[in-house]
Amino acid sequence: MLKLTPILLALLYGFVTWRFSAWRLKAQLDQRSAELAEPGLKRQMEQLARALDLPRIKVHLYDIPAINGLAAPDGRIFLTRGFLEAYRAGRVTAEELTSVIAHELGHVALGHSRRRMIDFSGQNALRIGLAQVLGRFIPGLGPLIANTAMSLLAARLSRSDEYEADAYAAALLTKAGIGTAPQVALLEKLEHLTGAAGAGRPAWLMSHPKTPDRVAAIQALDARWTGA
Fold it and tell me: Which Pfam families match (predicted)?
């Protein structure tokens, strides 16, 4: 039992850390956000709502300059002020912005936040256990190897979530009559919009799949649905 104590403590630590992070994020979002009211998105939001058989879809505006979308652990959907400003400047279309909302709805519907809580706690425990085992054979390097292995695992799980949310969004956009073209178009311009520089990084180190891989996956789904 004593041998298991560090692992059990690591599980508890991971759970508490995740809960604290979720609480802190909620406090930040509550303080810096309000419900989004953008007339130019009204028709597209109504299309999504009808496709989901909902009276309406509530989206919040997060007042930060970054260009991003967010699905909070409590199920709320956010677009940043930076994204809305890009839309108003004509750099993003209403349909493309709607594809971001559909993607974040996918994260909520598929339970990714809850899954990440379980994964984070489990990975923390696994990191401790692996470091203990490796430390016996590779003194001094065990914790480093364990941390690297868990970082790679976390990145892989995150990429899997992104593919799933993309697929959900593609299906929702298709059902809503918007189609996947705006989703693909936004992905292809997103790195330029955000200034992200990940093109040269190995795929296994990234939390999001590479853009060409995401686009190819969406187009494969679209071809299968349309018989093209």
Answer: Peptidase_M48
pTM of the model: 0.77
Domain boundaries, the chain: 5-226
For residue 104, give both structure tokens.
Answer: 């974040």
List, as one string, the DSSP characters of 56-105. ---EEEE--SS--EEE-TTS-EEEEHHHHHHHHTTSS-HHHHHHHHHHHH
